[in-house]
Amino acid sequence: MAGEFLLRIVGMFVFAALGWRIGDALAGNSGEAIRYIIVLALAGAALGLIITPWLTVRPYTWARRTIRQVPAQQLLAATLGLMIGLIIAALSAFPLSFLPAPFGSLLPFVSLLVFGYLGAWVMMMRERDFFALFGSRLSREGLARASSERTVLLDTSVIIDGRIADISRTGFIDGTLMIPRFVLQELQHIADSPDPLRRNRGRRGLEMLNKLQKESIVPIRVTDLDVEDVHAVDDKLVRLAKNLHCPIVTNDYNLNRVAELQGVRVLNINELANAVRAVVLPGEGLRVRVVQEGKELGQGVGYLDDGTMVVIDNGKKFIGSTIDVTVTRMLQTNQGRMIFATPAEDKK
Fold it and tell me: Residue 254's pLDDT is what?
């Protein structure tokens, strides 16, 4: 605010001087010269005090915010398109200058604006095609390097969950794992929460992030890219993913649905876990430790190594023991797979 106030004062003096010069030029040598000069100088000072920030600070802030939100690939495409447009405008300016007045002096300037705008706009609209065409001429090394620059965004929930660290070590994700600064700020806010449960979740997320940076075989990058006109972290993440044309890695069901509705690709850790769980068929045998009582009378519940729940009829009496069971059926739910079984000794 101090800088803006100083600029207002400077602008006030500059516009006052400009008003003084205009008043002096309009009044000439008349006796009313001093009145014109004072009135226009005061008007210029007031105008400078009001509009100076809109001519200096506000455009700079808008340009800075816009450039921070624009992906580097789009910025490069727009710059190349602008250069191509200006070259075309320069080539067309010479023949246009031979047109009769006023077209000979006006049309070269108009072509500069039109071709410059069209070049930047066309390149931004067709940036994917352009870079795909450019990439098709790269060597194998260049293609490998280009593929390694693919990016995926991590949200807060998937960092706290921690399984992304194990997944990154397997090589299934071959792009750069990007973590926006606002996600780190949310993690820190959760870690500082007075609620013990939230505080533990936040601290676990920071520990998992530290582990991810040390053990991941793919690049980890913290970015300052932000979406300043959006406040909710999930909304920021979706908007940023749309700007960068990259997927979001999450295990948040609501974020998954919102992102898909807006055309953003989502890599859901829970769906991946469900997809790679062991497939068992009715009649197959399993060995399970019964750890608790089920919802129905006499049921026992155990879990496989991948977390799949096994509901055992007449298994309550085996709680605390590891027994052989026979699969009777399997049920797919929103939370994952559930296996229903009976103790193998009941079949004897």
Answer: 86
Distance between CA atoms of 341 and 102, rounded to whole angstroms? 90
Residues pairing with 109 in the sheet: none
| Triad 249, 255, 258: Cα angle to 5° | 120
Q: Burial of 249 by CB count in 10 Å (0-12 exposed, 13-18 middle, 19+ buried)?
A: buried
Convert the pLDDT of each residue in 281-327 to its tens digit.
Answer: 888 888 899 999 888 888 999 988 767 889 999 888 889 889 999 99
The Cα 302–Cα 321 span in angstroms is 10
Q: Do residues 268 and 161 make contact, with C-beta atoms less than 8 angstroms apart?
A: no
> Of the candidates 257, 262, 261, which has an alpha carbon nearest to the alpha carbon of residue 240?
262
Condensed to tens digits (0 to 9), the pLDDT of residues 8-35 reads 888 888 888 888 888 777 766 666 667 7
Cα–Cα distances in angstroms (integers) from residue 263 to residues 151, 266, 288, 301, in the given order: 17, 9, 42, 40
**Phi, psi at residue 106, to the nearest 5°?**
-90, -45
Neighbours of 171 (CB within 10 A): 9
Q: Which token pair is 6? A: 């100083």
